[in-house]
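question for whoever is on the cluster today: can someone run the full assembly for these? two chains, 1175 residues total. i dont have access anymore since they changed the login thing
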Amino acid sequence: MAYIEIEHYSKVFGSADREIRANDDISFNLEKGHLMVIVGASGAGKSTLLNTLGGMDSATEGKVEINGKNIAKYSEKQLTTYRRNSIGFVFQFYNLIPNLTTLENVELASEISPAALDPAETLKQVGLEERINNFPSQLSGGEQQRASIARAVAKNPELLLCDEPTGALDYKTGKTILQLLQDFSHQDGKTVIIVTHNAAIKAMADHVIEISDGKVKEDYLNDQPEPVADIEW
Amino acid sequence: MIDLRQTFKKNILREFKSSFPRFISIAILLALGAFVLIGLKVTGSDMRATGNQYFSQHKMADAQVTSAVGFNQKDRNYIDQMDHVKQSEYSIYKDALTSDSHKTIRLNEKTSQLSVYRTVQGRLPKKSNEIALSKYEKGNYKVGQHVKLVGNDGKKQAAGLKHSSYKIVGFVTSSDYMQKSDLGVSNNGKGQIDTFGVLAKSGFSKQTPNVAKVSYDNLQGKSYSDQFEKQLNENVDQAAPGMAKRADKRQAEIKQDKREQLKDAQTDLDEQKENVQEKKSQLTQAKAQLEQNQAKLQQAQAQLADSKEQLAQLPAGTQKNALSQQQQAKQQQISTQEAQLRSRQQQWQQNSRDLQDAQEKISASEKKLTDQKEKIDQISGLTYQLQARNDYNQGYNQFGEAAERIDVLSNTFPLIFFAVAILVTLTTMSRMAEEKRTDIGAMRALGYTKFDSMKLFLVYGTSAAVLGTAIGAYFGTWLLPERIYDAYAANLAVPSLQTPPSWLWISISLLFALLCTVVPSVYVVWKSLQEQPADLLVEKPPKAGSKVLLEKVPFIWKRMSFNQKVTVRNLFRYKSRMFMTIIGIFGCTTLLITGFGMRDSINGIIDNQYQKITHYDVVGVYDPSASQQQKDDYQKQVDDIDSVKKQDSVYYESATAKPKGSTNNQQVSMIVPQHQKDFSDFITLRDPDSHKKLKLKNDGAVITQKLAKLGNYSVGDHVSLKDSAGRTHRVKISGIAEMYAGHDVVLNSNYYQKVFGEKVEYNAKMLNLKDRSSKNIDQVSRQLNKQDAAVTAVQSNQAKTAISTVLDGLNSIVLIIVLASSALSFVVLFTLTNINVSERTRELATLRVLGFYQRETVMYVYRETSILTVLGILVGFGGGYYLHHFIMETLPPNNAMADMALHWSNLGLSTGLTLLFSLIVMLVMARKISKIDMLGALNSAD
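^ ran it for u. tokens below:
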């Protein structure tokens, strides 16, 4: 059984006569430990899909089964518990809390997570051991994103969701971040989903989904994902 | 704001719609500020204006002179020529009881020039048997009905009145009787005048006027203005010594008259005495003659007996017969003479008895004359009481003081309201300007002018200010003044309040409102406009984090939980908002505590005064120069009253004092107890702070707290007391005693003698009653006043009723203050939390995404708010203590003092309310937080 099983899932906004189908009849599976890249243009419905997968919003129709649990019809509270225990998020903008140091930002996540990893250790993994007592404003963009990843990872989530994680970073820094994510999947065996409009990234994934107009256009597996270092865009 | 393009207008309109809660919050804050400011500022002047109109409608006299013996022509000439007297009108007044309800009614002669009566129904009396009653009797009587008036005994026709029954022809108002009950002191009924009536002059049987109404020609300004009151008091003070002299003169005249009458009687008596003397000598002469006659008769009898013997020795014969006949004739003659003598003797005895009677009568008359002479010598204390409005009309004073009190309130309460409103509005508007940074940037980039970009704020701020001020001004102009007026005028007979809008205060409020909405936002926008449009388009990064001082204390910092650390960091991150919240909550708690405290304090007056300090119920004042019999009757009456628990003799006098620095006289009860030891059973004289009992000393008097406060007196100072005759005495203060209602000066008999130069003559009975209900107190007072020796009965609970009425009214003011403060604290909490939440939307979204439950997210923000709220409340305790103290020092009338203690219930209630508002705001915020679009918030640039 796949780790993620989505069947005929749709997300509809608006009322019956003026409905907007942001995700329309989407179905796909994702194996545990795979790195998936979801590609699509702006407004294709990537973010809505990520929202549903991340338990930030419930589905309108269909089945969204994660690790055997169908979260499609979860209540607000159930969704929160799901996010709390199972999901780690990385965003384009790092969303670190400005008033907390790097370490405290990571602690903020580990505090509420039952299977949390050691925050300092996690920061060391992402190479920020020197910066643990700095405030976000004192970090560079790449460092902030690394801290953000550390925060997501420290919860020891089953699923790491990344929304344009390199969108605000320069090429070089972006690559190191992607490498970090790939390592997380391939070395630690975590399931990772990266949402992006950058088609070049597809090469690093085990599993690629292309979305357009709210529908799945392509769904294929990469038997030989390229190391991030080899990808160029 | 002319020529706004269509879309531009739409944008502004949308701003109103999208930030409606903010707009309304600002408007409410400003409305509250304006409401309290305008409301309190105008009430005092509204009241004075209403009073002034009422006084001029009634041509209220500036002063009045009363005399117990009435005024003769010389008195009238004297009064008319007193300095500055413009007009004078003389009339009669007389007290009686209504026979049906036993109310004490003061009957006044109809006046036409000064202190006139205005009819509210019917007309004024014309014929001798007509009467017009106070309009407050309208519920009890009807025009056309008759009212029966009786004397103090409740049966006989009242002295001085022509009829026993008068026909009601109308109902009137008067400026002289501004209180609804307790219109003044009377020796009739329970001692207090209940109501008044107006009669034609012919309605009185005695035609000598006993009151003179006077107006002055040198008074400027309106009633209650400093200028007016000062000049009036000066006039009265200047005239007082002359008035006292005039009274002395009149007293001398009366004595002279009486002495002359006495002299005539003496002459009569002397004549009678002479007569008696003459008769006495006649009697003595008559007695001598009688004795002579008797001797003669005895002689004749002896002769007769001799001749009888001779006759017996004579032989019978003609000679003998002749002799015998002769003898018989003689015998007869003697018998007649004897009878004559006897009757003369009887007559003499009769005359002698008569003489004795006459003598007795004369000596009785003589004694009477000497008695009368003594009495005439004793006649004293005739006074002509000249009193200014403030003194002859308690209501006038009370009304003016009430208006002044509100003026004092108006200088504190609105300040706090406005300060809090300004602070919060300021924060909100500058925050709004910061939020709109990118919008301004976009508009500038599109080519709109700087002024265009400001228009939104000008329109937004101005509308909020105008709307808020309009609402506040509307309610502030009538609602607050009328509620306050109702409270203060509850026991005053005054017309309904006039509430013209005060454009001055409305303009000031509007100006303040505009200052706090338009100025800060324009300032922030102006600052932003200095930047390049391109820079403006990039959102300002959130405030960077920094370590707080506490982190340098690892001892504490390390022990704190993660959440605590975060909270502490956040508290110090937004310092200005931290202070805003604390100040806002501080202000609201202060107002709540003050509001509740005002009610407790005034309630406390009654509790403290009548349970801990005043134990007596009635002081029955009698005339010490009444006959011994009358005084004995009075004492007997006191002894006969069942409900008397304890009684003692005291000297009681109502004097006045004029504390330093005040324009008005204060009524002071001067009391000299006969038995100092038991006096604490009647009044507890104790130190206000230590509650230690105060003893009366031989070298000074104990005065009560409020009097000391008014004149800023301390122990060792002297206070001047003016007795009812207008003579001033300096009294040294040996102690200051706790007292909440009225002023007392208590001294022992030794010190009295020292100050007044004469031995104290006890003139009153102080009584503690078993049944302390006002009904029983009235009953006892009435019984006492029926006595011939009675002067009046003073009830200790008079102040109680007045205070209770004020209290009832005050409750509605307190309610308004509490409601307004509650609204204020709610809006403050809401606005500040709202800003807090919107400023940290991204942070909250992050927490939500991380999987914080809703409660945890709310608490993440709300922990700070709670701490700040609690801090604000704690500081508010201090503020409430001071504000309450300040207000309760100034709010009570000059003759009352409030209980300053703050009750735990007050603190609890104020805290509870503030926490409740905080909780409600939290629930509202929880909804808002749960609605945050997580992805939207997180996917925007830092």
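summary bc i know u wont read the tokens: The first strand of chain B starts at residue 63 and ends at 67. Chain B touches chain A through 33 residues (CB under 8 Å).
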